[in-house]
Amino acid sequence: MRKANVLMDRDFAIGQTDPRLFGAFVEHLGRCVYGGIFEPGHPTADEKGFRRDVLALVKELGPTIIRYPGGNFVSGYNWEDGVGPVEKRPARLDLAWFSTEPNSFGTNEFMDWCKTAAVEPMLAVNLGTRGGDAARNLVEYCNHPSGSAWSDLRRAHGWEQPHGVKFWCLGNEMDGPWQMEYKSADAYGTVAREAAKMMRWIDPSIELAACGSSGRNMPTFGQWEDTVIEHTFDHAEYISLHTYLNNYKQDTPSFLASPDLMDRFIDEVVAIADAVAAKRRSHRRMMLSFDEWNVWYRTRRNRADRVWEGWPVAPSILEEIYTMEDALAFGGACISLLNHADRVRTACLAQLVNAIAPIMTETGGAAWRQTIFFPFAQMSRLGRGKVLRTQVESDAYDSSYYDPRGEQQSMFPIPNVAYLKIAAVAGEGGGLSLFMLNRDLMQEMEVNLEARSFGRLTVGEALELRHDDLKATNTKTTPERVKPAPLQGASVDGGKLRVTLKPASWNVIHLSAG
Ligand code: AHR
User: Fold this and answer.
1) 73, 74, 242, best to mutate for ligand 1 pocket (most atoms within 8 Å of CB)
2) 3-state SS, residue 396
3) What residues does ligand 1 touch, defined as CB less than 6 Å away?
4) Residue 81: helix, strand or coil by DSSP?
5) Which of 51, 91, 430, 452 has the most CB atoms around it within 10 Å of its CB?
6) 462, 509 in Cβ contact below 8 A?
7) Is residue 510 situated within a structural domain?
8) 420 assigned to some structural domain
């Protein structure tokens, strides 16, 4: 049996989690919108065509903010196509996913869906095929009360009150050649800065995120951030990061180590942002928006999983079926995000339904939870509060992770990977939530944890997510094959917790005060 010791103190905090850390993403991609959140005619659809079964699962998942409408899709999107009388809206060829976009769901429908789901909207503007002019018009359409052409058009379309969208993304992955009209860092930085200026002149209350690299494995990573932040430092509050973890090599120890590269990616982006601040002698700190993250590889490289012939509407593309081991790597990513709560203020699980998603549906039929649903739901429910610094003594292993996007470099060393990955969050009510990943595939792990300055704690909730078969999945016919179960044997004495974690397991313990 492995052993790990953990020490923390209630007064030694990394930072408070921003509610927006628990966000997700809805893109016009495959069946995420059509057949996912929106399916008029479905037996559970409400009068607006929103699937109530999906809404119930979204509520249980607990996302706080939803990014929309893309993703790659946004870089060719004319937002005007998606507003006004539905019967007059044009069908367009979408060059991001080689589908036909019917535009029967657009910005106003999304705002209504967000209200129904009780989540905050986050809108991305098209800085690929379009620019600052279309972006500022969209801000005027959404947020200006009345008395101007675009705001009055919104009112004429039936939405009298402004939508009040606060969080805006300045394009999407503009460093990537797969993007419509991708740009050099200098060209993008200039467009982003000018769009940001105009958008904020219309509504000074908005917050803006500039595009960082679409992955740490991009050849331009680092230089891209430096240049873009130089341009946007005085105009945007956030720089974005994207990561999709993979197990292409079927090397599970490396896959479970890969969230540690997210930690490094975050630290590196913080260093670059702060170096730009230092050159200006500025006290201002740019925050990070990790607005796409997940596991994604099975449906990523094979063109047939991404593109169907004949320009179909809402094809079943990117429908990644998640395994138990995916949920473990995903849980590791949750821990990485929590442990950077001081700088990562926003994060979006990509995506929400059907396309690389925690929620799966059958068009016209059932909806169910994928394996990755559970770590996210637990993080959102129990991860609100003050994230504490943890001092961890654990055995470690060396790993090397394959991430093929960069042309020159596709192996990334990850030395000294602790078998125990942990985040600890002190809640408002005096309790403590622990998120623990045992990355040892064979051995149990005894964890001895001392939580100082908490007073008496008792075990309120203890759950584990594991399966004898690391390839186990949840499907329509076996929707509950992988699900959390009670974690037995956790004991607390004062502020000292002892618990044994199963091999290859994700564990959540909530200790209540008193
Ligand atoms: O989430 C799927 C795609 O991944 C998004 O459209 C894009 O931004 C990223 O490359």
Assistant:
1) 242
2) strand
3) 27, 70-72, 172-173, 214, 292, 350-351, 356
4) helix
5) 51
6) yes
7) no
8) no
